[in-house]
Amino acid sequence: ASKAYTDLVGKDAVTPCGKTITLNMNAGLMADLPSLSSSGAEGVGLFRTELQFLIRNSVPKRGELATLYGRVMDAAQGKRVVFRTLDIGSDKVLPYMKPQDEPNPAMGWRAIRVGLDKRGVMRMQLQALIRGCAGRPLTIMFPFVAQFEEYRAARMMVDAELANEKRLGHVLPSSIEVGAMLETPSLAFAPDQFFKETDFISIGGNDLKQFFFAADRENERVRRRYDTLNVSFLSFIRQIVDRCEAHGTPVSFCGEDAGRPLEAVCFAAMGLKSLSMRPASIGPIKHILRQVNLDAIAELISSAAARGEQSVRKDVATYLA
Ligand code: PEP
Ligand code: MG
To answer: Where located (predicted)?
Structure first.
C-alpha cells in the first residue's frame, strides 16, 4: 500500500456529507488474515470456505476444519468474520464428488442447493464452525439462496446443530448470526418475512449481476456488455437496500465491484453502508469515499435515469475527476 493509504489505516471511511461506510475484506485462506490489520479492514465480510475443500482428495475432517476456523478467529483478534458455507458444485467440482453433467452449471446444482440435498457435508461444516467459534461470536452466511424456504431450512439446520452441540456438552459460540447472500434477483422479491428472519443480507454482486442481465460472468464476450453502473442495476440495488432498511436488516455488498472506485461510490450513494472487497482495495476506496459527497452522486444517478441514459459511468467519472 502506498503511503497515502497507510495513513488511512486507523481512520474511518466517512464522507464529507457525514456518512460512515464500513469497509470489510474478502478472504479465503489463513494467509489472507494478516491483511486485516495492514489494510485497515473492519472485519472479514466474506470468508469463502471453498478452498479447504478444493485442495484435498477427500472431504476435510470436521476436526481439521474446526481448528482452521478457530485459527481464523484467533487471527481476526475480535474483528467480525462472516463465514460463507460451501459454495461448490457444477463448475467447481470437488475431486471426490461425482461430476455433474449440467448444461448450465452457474444455474445448476450448486451452493446451498447441494448443502440442502447432501446434508452430511453441510452439517459437518456447521459443526466445525460451531466448534471453531466456541465461546466467540459466530457469523454464518448461506450462498446462492434463491427462495425464502432455502434460507429457513438452512437456518433450521444451524439451530439443530447448536442444540446437538449443547446436548453433547460442548461450549457454544457466544452469539450467533445467520445471514443470506442475495445473488439471485428472485430473492429481492421475497416476502417481508424473509427480510425479518435474516440477521443480515449480503449482496453477491458477481452472481447478482450475471443473473440480472442474463450475462455469464465467465463469458468475456457478454460479460463486458453490461455495466455495473447501468441505471437499472443501480436502481435494483437501491430497492434491495430499501427493503432491508424497512425491516432493520443490515445489508452489505461483497462482490468484486465493491472494490472498484466508481462502483463503490455509486453503491454508497444507493444507501449501502457496508462494502466488502479485496484487501488491496480498502485503502483506495476509503481515500475516495472520504472526499465524495454521496448526495451529489445520488443526484447524478437520478438525473441520468431521468434523461434515459443507460449508464452513469461517464457522469460519475467526470464528477470525480
Ligand atoms: C458474488 O457472487 O458476488 C460473490 C461474492 O460470490 P462468488 O464470487 O464467490 O460467487
Ligand atoms: Mg456468488
So the answer is: Cytoplasm
Residue 307 CB neighbour total at 10 angstroms: 9
Mutate to test the pocket of ligand 1, among 50, 90, 182, 183 (most ligand atoms within 8 A of CB): 183
Please, how many CA atoms are within 13 Å of residue 231, restricted to the half-sphere of its CB?
19
Give the strand pairing for 80-84 and 251-253. unpaired
Atom of ligand 1 nearest to the CA of 203: 3
Atom of ligand 1 nearest to the CA of 207: 2
Strand pairing class (20-27; 13-14)? antiparallel
CA–CA distances in Å: residue 206 to residues 54, 223, 258: 21, 11, 10
40 sits in the region (left: phi over 0; alpha: psi -120 to 50; else beta) called left
Q: Which of 32, 91, 181, 278 to mutate to test the pocket of ligand 1 (most atoms within 8 A of CB)?
A: 181
The grid cell for 115 is: 448443502
Q: Which residue has the cell 470437488?
A: 94
Residue 247 burial by Cβ neighbours in a 10 Å radius (0-12, 13-18, 19+): middle
CA max distance for the chain = 63
Question: In this prediction, does ipTM exceed 0.90?
Answer: yes
Give the ligand at the shortest distance from the Cα of 49.
Answer: 1
In angstroms, the CA 167 to CA 305 distance is 56
Sequence-distant (≥ 6) Cβ neighbours of residue 195 within 8 angstroms: 201, 243, 244, 246, 247, 249
**pLDDT level of residue 96 (50, 70, 90 thresholds):** confident
In this prediction, residue 100 carries a pLDDT of 80
**pLDDT tens-digit readout, 99-136:** 788 889 899 999 999 999 999 999 999 999 999 999 99
Distance set, CA 317 to CA 19, 191, 267, 272, 300 (Å): 21, 37, 14, 19, 11
